[in-house]
Amino acid sequence: MQECEHYTDSIYYQLEQTAKYCRYLGTQIFQKLNTPITLDEFAALDVIQMHDGICQRELAKLILKDRPNTGRILNSLEEKGYIERFVDTKNNRLVRKMTLTDSGKIVIENVTKSLKKHIESLPKMFSDEDKAKLMLALKNFRESLEKEVEMKI
Q: What digits encode the pLDDT tens for the residues 25-47?
């Protein structure tokens, strides 16, 4: 890896700053589109849609939130009628799992369509090929970091 005299010259800093800008942009887009859910709720719904019956701990790991914050997100989604939680067993233990309601499926579909339209209107910075290469490099980098990071979620 390239030697950096300062942390602000490192890939870690650049990724952290880029992630912050992505977060700010996402929050602004959700406000502009006046969606019925927040960016964090959208991420949770998207994961639940992909992993029906997921438990809170697994969801927390996938959205990189601690369990109390994940619980708050889930409480909000349940109050809005977008998810249902149920008790199930996993490894002989009771766990709370969740699934999307019909309203949740509709809201995720509508928000996804709105987001796609808005994102497509943003200036294109990368060709599709460059974007695919960047995504693969970021995925590989993240997966190597996952092996080094001890997460207590």
A: 999 999 999 999 999 999 999 99
